[in-house]
Structures are given as C-alpha cells and as structure tokens.
Design goal:
The chain has about 110 residues and is mainly alpha-helical. The protein contains 3 helices and no strands.
Length: about 110
C-alpha cells in the first residue's frame, strides 16, 4: 500500500494533536491562512519555535551560571557561540520587524 504525502501529513497531524490533547489540525486540503504579504501562517510552527527558544534560553542560562570568567574555552566553542549570537541577532531583527509591523496594522 502506497501512502501519499498528504495522507501521511494528516496522520502525523492527528497523532501530534492527540499527544498534545489539542483539537486536530484541519486537513491539508483546507485553504491555508496567509499573512498580509501572502505567506502561509502555521501557528504550530510558532508554538514549536517558542519551545525551542525556551530550551535555548534554559541551556544558555545554565552554562552562564556554571562558567567562570577565567575558564578556558576551546576555539571551536568560542566560534560556535559567536555564530549563535549572530544568528540570534538576525532572527530577532527579522521577527522584531515583523511583529512591529503587525502591531502597527492592528
């Protein structure tokens, strides 16, 4: 039996909804919600992103609390931290502007 991508997507959505105790998401055939620019809106993505941000913040705070100012960090760690900081700035700039525009429209 061959399953289509849409069928698999619906099965995954139903399983995730059942696990979360939430209502099932609309089927893939339903018209997607779009923002004013026409980009699709998926509230589940924002929920997962918030969870990721919470985990990032928790782990960063834990490392911050355990490190001392005179601890030696290998070059690769310093490089990864610099890259993460740069990535976080880009994300905050993008989302900050998007949220600002939404506030102006409301």
């Amino acid at each position: 039996m061959s399953a289509t991508r849409g069928l698999l997507r619906n099965i995954v959505r139903e399983c995730v909804a059942a696990e979360a105790g939430a209502l099932a998401l609309p089927p893939a055939s339903a018209a997607p919600k779009v923002d004013p620019v026409g980009h699709p809106i998926d509230s589940g993505v924002a929920r997962m992103s918030r969870g990721a941000l919470f985990n990032i913040a928790s782990r960063a705070q834990s490392l911050h609390d355990r490190l001392e100012d005179d601890d030696h960090l290998p070059e690769w760690v310093r490089s990864k931290l610099a890259a993460m900081l740069d990535d976080m700035h880009e994300i905050e700039d993008h989302l900050g502007y998007k949220l600002h525009r939404q506030e102006l429209e409301n």
